[in-house]
Amino acid sequence: MKPHSKETGSESVVPVSSTPSISSNRISEQHGMERQFSFFSIIGLAFAILNSWTAMAASLNIVLPSGGPVAMLWGLVVSAIGALCLSASLAEICHIYPTSGGPYHWSAMLAPSEWAPLISWVCGWFAVTGWWALVATTGSLAGSLITGIIALLHPNYEVQRWHMFLIFEVWMMGSFLINTFGIRLLPTINRAALTWSITGVVVISITCLACASPTYQSPQFVFRTYINESGWNNGVAWILGLLQSAFGLTGFDAVSHIVEEMPSPHIHAPRAMILAVLIGATSGFAFLIVLLFCLTDVDAVIASPAGALLEIIYQATGSRVGAVCLLMFPVVSMAFAGQGIMTGASRMAHAFARDNGLPFSPVFARINSRFRVPLASLVLTTVLCVIFGCIYLGSSSALNAILSSSVVALNISYSIPVALLLIRGRHLLNPPDLPAPPTFTLGHIGGPIANIIGLAFAVITTVFFLLPPELPVTPSNMNYTIVVFGIITIVSATTWAATGRHHFKGPLDMEELLRMAFDARRLADMPMEHPEKPSEFRRLNLVVFFTPTMPSPAGGSSTNLSTRTEIPGSEMRTPRGAPAVLTEVSIDTNGTIAQARDYAHMPGHYPSSIATQPTPQDSLDDFGGVGGLVLGDTSPILSSIPNVHESPTTTLHSYGTDSFVSTDSAPPTRLRRASEIAASRQMSAPKALEHGSTHRGPRTPKRIIVCCDGTWQDGLIKRQSWMYSNVLKLARCLHHEDQRYDPPIPQIVFYQSGIGSEQNPYSRFIDGATGASLAEKVQEAYAFIAHNYFPGDEVFLFGFSRGAYTARMVAGFIGSIGILDRTAMDSFADIFIAMQKKCKAKDAAEHKRCDDALAPFKEICDDGRRRADFNHDKFTIKCVGVWDTVGSMGLPTVITGNSAKMHQLFDFPDDLLGPHVERGLHAMSLNEDREDFQVTKFHQTKKGKERGQQLKQVWFAGQHSDVGGGWQDHDLSDIALMWMIANIEDIVSIDVKYCKALPRPVAEWGTQLPHSSQSGIYKFGGKAMRQPSIDPATHEQMHPSVKMQGWLTPAAGAWIENYPDRFVPLLPLEQELRENWGYRQGFTPKRVDTRQAQKEFKNEQTAVKGLIAMASKALRTATQTEVLKDEGGRSVYEDSWVGRIVDEIVNKKDN
């Protein structure tokens, strides 16, 4: 399996346990929602969503003209059998794979690997569409009931379509508000819904039977009367009448979408799915019989503007007020159903968005930190339901269309995994790695029978429910379900063709999904224990398997582990109930690691809770060259082993607070043979450990290197190497370890793609233009460091453009709060917000409140060894190296106006280079003249200078990307890259051969003409030339390559003339690169924009002539020279050679 870096926009140069992946997103997202649903509340939610008796009673208008009582009762029996077979089939799958995606997750797991993404995509779109339509049905039925009450109480009232539309919209907003602000009330509401619904059906039934006595309809009418006023033949009409009962029994998969919020989901979810259908069918059948016996005038019921249900109750009771009071039971039940269905629909959309199945998926995949709900998914669901409601404005059959849309879409989503199971075989329900034998099964005979019946029911109803409800067909009574599905099909197909087929790989790889599901099953079955019992311990040993490498069915990592050997002396003891990790390493007969896994044991908790506290360095001393493995943090496994070879055979699985890595493309490591390992570990001599003691071996500090790329930059997507930025090139040229030391120092590299690099319109145009996700980038980079850092490690931060801003924000965050341990990372979001508030505090009281909030985290982290303590001799951050830092914005102010409010979100002071940074490097663009791309220079503090901090800020020729990289002609950016590498090669290990192969010169060294900054949308923005300065706090210098430019900015010209000693000398690596530049004389480059450069040069000349003419005219017509000075009396041109010309004219006038 491969890490899904494209999901997160991150790439790990070496495999580490904290690399973001899809499963880490699962765990972290799940960690944002609480497990607050008991089994009783789950049953209540399922029953509230189906709301069968209410749904069937409220939709009597559909079935009475299309089959009458026969279709109502016996159609319900048929629908119940079909729905029960479907729910049982899905429940059997859910028992094995309890995942929040429901049918579309199951489709991915049951489909052939080559078809899994497409099948999962189709199933996912039908599922979310069905749930969105199902939400809309609650508003539709509620609107019918409410307008019916008004019509009954006011006989002259005539129902208008826009009345239904307004009630529908208000109903949707109410469901949204409850799901947003009342999330903690949902379990209580669900339990109340079950009680209220059962009470309502009993009260209405008894009251109607008592009031209607003795004028009941005959059993002949109830069980055998057939009515057909649809215009279709009797067979088609009867099938169309199934819509009422099928709708009343659909949506039973709702519980599968909240498995992350329930205990023991593999047990409770399947039970709830089947019980919901059984309770719904039974209560619905009994209630419909009562209504049919109490019905006295069929024609009046069909024609009543008050609705069929209210008219029947009124006929039974003879009282309008009594009928309205009884109708409050289904109205309130519908309200309960509305919020429950909104919950299921939003969770379904959220799960699909986490897998990049929706447009703008990163937005809809977020969990709101304040309300702990997927707020964006709730908003999306509400907006789409509002659009659904617009059908009321154009069709008298709107209710029929909305009900049909929900039933058809959901039945299709149910059918896909059931069909896959039926076609591919039941062996998929008994995978070899299943933690325990299944306890819920339909059997080898009952299973296929249930699958076939359920599929037949779904296929037949899907076809017929697309037909119009009556003949002849008119625009008013048209069934607009087909239009809805046409729109959804076009959107889904377009999205698949544009991005899905390239980036959507299904919810998860097969093995990864299995592991998540199995861990959920395994850990949910473990009893909850209390960690406050230090006298009781569990013992976990490191286990090594010796086995020939066997490919897995999915073509991934090796499996079928055989010989098991426990390594004495590697045992770890932890208090009962506390996190612990069992590490398993599989080694093949050639001595190669075939598999390394951490199995987490946390009683009563999901894997997201495990290993939140790093365990001590334990006893692996020299295990096959894997020195210093830390149980609970297996990131050093691969990175600390020498002699890495390129061959995809090694896998690493690790749980952490939000980390889970699984890859089959990680470089394997050649270890000593199994016999040598056994001898080196002396397996025949077990060594016991006393409680509280640790077996420590030598530990080699590692280097954590974070590379943050610029806007729209992503090396995982751009295939042409010439498009790479300097950040990515630097990440690629770093060795896995520094072998200049003995033992070698591991170098763990984390590459973070830039803002706006994800392949969707929101990311490209909104996020990329505004930098809206900059805060998330800062948090992601800091979290990577915190999850991998161990006292003594060295931290490096590199970045370009907004990535440079990100790197500097992370450095500032570390300087203010230190590097948090994994336990403290649970509060990282609150700390981040508190830091923002502190930076924007307007008074001392507010500043003190922020300090008080941060105080607990500023004290001691991990025995004080992980703090940024300036009193210690050792720096916390080894180096911060950036190319042309710009802030969070970048869109011309002519479009955005005053962007200060948006900028305040990221308002950390990043201009100061904190004393906790040992070395600061900044390559700045001299020719960048966009007003909104002002460079943010480093300023050295007094304390940093006293500690011997190094700061180099050097100006280079070219505009923004000429320094940071990204142009096809990258001579200038290569010069800036080599300057950075030359300044860090003494503290990191660089692949020099790779570096030397990067340049593709199109001109002599340093002579390539800069690209234009004023292009595209930036033509509408202002211009502002950058000005180098002589400031002891910034340490600015000029690079010698600037002298090679054929034309210069005024600032560069003045610098060359006035400060010849401020040019930084070329370092040996740079000098070697210049001597071997490789440019061919006489070669005419195709990509050099000479016309644009010449045009700009002429513009510069014209501007200079204009300034001189203006100055001369001013001198001839005025006696004051202040016209050439600013408000402070300073010449506006004194820093440029243009200014010297003007000053010369002024001097002539004065003389």
TrEMBL record:
It holds the Pfam family AA_permease_2. One of its GO terms (cellular component) is membrane. Residues 10-27 have a biased composition (Low complexity). InterPro entries: AA/rel_permease1, AB_hydrolase_fold, Amino_acid_permease_CS, Tle1-like_cat. It comes from the Eukaryota. GO terms for biological process: amino acid transport. Residues 702-982 form the T6SS Phospholipase effector Tle1-like catalytic domain. One of its GO terms (molecular function) is transmembrane transporter activity. Keywords: Membrane, Transmembrane, Transmembrane helix, Transport. Residues 1-27, 554-575 are annotated as: Disordered. The keyword Transmembrane applies. The chain crosses the membrane at residues 37-60, 72-97, 118-150, 162-181, 193-216, 236-260, 272-293, 313-338, 375-395, 401-423, 444-467, 479-498. It is a multi-pass membrane protein. It is found in: Membrane. Residues 555-565 have a biased composition (Polar residues). PANTHER family: AMINO-ACID PERMEASE BAT1 (PTHR45649), GABA PERMEASE (PTHR45649:SF14). This is Choline transporter. It comes from Ceratobasidium theobromae.
